[in-house]
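Q: Could you predict the 3D structure of Type II secretion system F family protein?
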Amino acid sequence: MATIAAGRKPATTPRENPLSDFVWTGVDKRGTVIKGETQSKSVNLVKAELRRQGITPRVVKAKPKPLFGKAGKSIKPQDIAIFSRQLATMMQSGVPMVQALDILASGQKNPRIATLIGSIRDEVSGGSALSEALSKHPLYFDDLYQNLVRSGEGAGVLDTVLDTIATYKERIEALKGKIKKALFYPAAVMAVAILVSCILLIFVIPQFQSVFQGFGADLPAFTQMLVNLSEWMQSYWWLLLLVVAGSIFGLIAAKKRSRKFAQFLDRMVLKIPVIGQIMHQSAIARFARTLGITFRAGVPLVEALETVSGATGNIVYENAVRRIREDVAVGYPVNMAMKQVNLFPHMVVQMTAIGEEAGALDTMLFKVAEFYEQEVNNAVDALTSLLEPLIMVVIGVVVGSMVVGMYLPIFKLAAAVG
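A: Sure. Here are the predicted structure tokens for Type II secretion system F family protein:
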């Protein structure tokens, strides 16, 4: 009998080949040509599986990879919410986690999501907990998501926690959509006004300028200003475009690199009429819902506050929540710590105090979140109704001013002739 030489390690088992995507064409028992895609380790295994299903394979080949990078759309938070709810539903139905992940991966139309879920499935099938597998993809599963899943695993209620996460993400994304809508309209007013002005200055006013040159008289001051501005725009429009684009990219880069500058911008946004109030309400809603869901999942309060600080969407509120965490860590009640930062409305502080006294902090926080989410909805709808006619007024003023400026010389000439 052969023996292993002393000091020599036995040969390790070769690593299992990862699954690959294959496309195939075959004929079923009725003679119908059918096509499909499947994941397997080799072409032969695909053919064997097709024959087992009563399909005679004709062509089986590896799925061609895209020429430029990965195919598919980028993965959005809404996709993660859908994944969470689907996984929760399958686990509640008794489907084992690895099998559930395999089903979800094979059923995705977006290859990027399929690859992500497939990677998680491989980690879980290799013995890792789901929270550990998710931690390998922090771009899509943040600390909050990982902490909630870890708590669900510890308490044995992972399916319930995943369903709660899905609902949370859907609500947060809906709230973000409202905020984007609120910020879009003022930007749209400015953009349309600038665009109309540029079109008039570059294409319309030069037509009048050739007429003015035949008058042989001095132009009114306002008309002369428009003519000078039109000449500048025709020669240096590219410079204006460069300055605007450079300013936008510069602000974005400065906000990403400098926390102080980002805090300054967030503070200024909170002071803008109407928009600032919406941002306040949004930050409070996100704070309340995130803290409520982490507390209900069993995450320790101090750790939950650390996670919540980054979910408010505003650095001013983020710093305030960190101060609350420091106070809670040394023994202060949450409501007292919230009162000290002087940022949360009295109603929110009082409802938090009632929740703490009644032992139902999470329930009270959810009520706060629902109230402020509704306030955001109402404020955005009101802002939209207000800005729709305002856009027309702004455009009318811009266009009307330029039209009057162009006809002033004609009126002046008519008066002189008369």
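Q: Anything worth pointing out?
A: The first helix runs from residue 43 to 52.
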